[in-house]
Design goal:
By secondary structure, the chain is α+β, with helices and mostly antiparallel strands. The protein contains 6 helices and 5 strands, in the order H-H-H-H-E-H-E-H-E-E-E.
C-alpha cells in the first residue's frame, strides 16, 4: 500500500478522511485532497493510538483506522467478501488498506472497460492455499490482499490486459493468462 501524505490526492485520501472523521479526528470535508487539516487529524489519530506520529497514512495507520471504526473496505462496485480466499478465509484486518487501494484501482479498470462488470476470480490467499496453486509465487501479491485475478464481462483477457497495462502503469503488476487477467498494487511496474 502506498503511503499518503500532504499533497496526495484521490479516492484513497477521501477514504482516509472519511475514516478519520468516523474515528473522531475531524479533518473537515472528505474532498480527496490531503492538506493541513488532514495531516493534523492523522497526527492526532496516530498519537491517540500509540502509532509513530509522522502525519503520513501508511498501512499501520489504515489498519488502526479500520479497526477503530469497525469499517470494511468497499467501493461502489466491490465489497470485501469478493476478495476472501477460496478456502473460505476472510481477508485479515491488517490487509484492509491494501484491499481498499486495490478496489479503487479496479474501479478505474471497470470504468475504462465501459463499466462492464468485473468478477474477482482470486483475491486474498492464505500461505497454505497459495502454496497449492500451480505456478504461484511464494511472494505472491495475493498473500497481502494486494492482487486480484479478474474477468471482465464480455471481454477477452487479452483485451483487459491491454487496458490494465496502460491504466496501471508503474503503480503495479499486470499479467495475461488464458482465462483471466492479474492486477496488483505492488507499487512498481511488472508485466508478464
Amino acid at each position: 500500500m502506498k503511503t499518503l501524505k500532504k499533497g496526495s490526492k484521490g479516492k484513497m485520501v477521501e477514504k482516509l478522511q472519511t475514516l478519520l472523521n468516523a474515528a473522531g479526528c475531524e479533518c473537515g470535508k472528505a474532498d480527496g485532497v490531503f492538506g493541513k487539516n488532514t495531516e493534523t487529524a492523522v497526527k492526532d489519530f496516530q498519537k491517540e493510538n500509540r502509532l509513530s506520529v509522522d502525519g503520513m497514512a501508511g498501512l499501520k495507520t489504515f489498519e488502526a483506522l479500520f479497526l477503530k471504526t469497525k469499517t470494511e473496505p468497499k467501493t461502489e462496485h466491490f465489497k470485501l467478501s469478493e476478495f476472501k480466499c477460496h478456502n473460505g478465509t476472510k481477508v485479515p484486518t491488517e490487509y484492509y488498506g491494501n484491499v481498499q487501494e486495490l478496489m479503487f484501482q479496479l474501479e478505474e479498470i471497470r470504468a475504462a472497460c465501459g463499466n462492464a462488470a468485473i468478477r474477482i476470480q482470486s483475491g486474498y490467499r492464505t500461505k497454505e492455499y497459495n502454496s497449492n496453486c500451480s505456478g504461484a509465487s511464494p511472494r505472491s501479491q495475493h498473500l497481502t490482499a494486494s492482487a486480484a485475478d479478474i474477468k471482465v464481462k464480455g471481454m477477452a483477457p487479452a483485451e483487459v490486459y491491454k487496458i490494465c497495462d496502460k491504466l496501471v502503469g508503474s503503480r503495479g503488476g499486470v499479467g495475461k493468462y488464458k482465462n483471466f487477467t492479474h492486477n496488483d498494487i505492488r507499487g512498481y511496474r511488472a508485466r508478464w
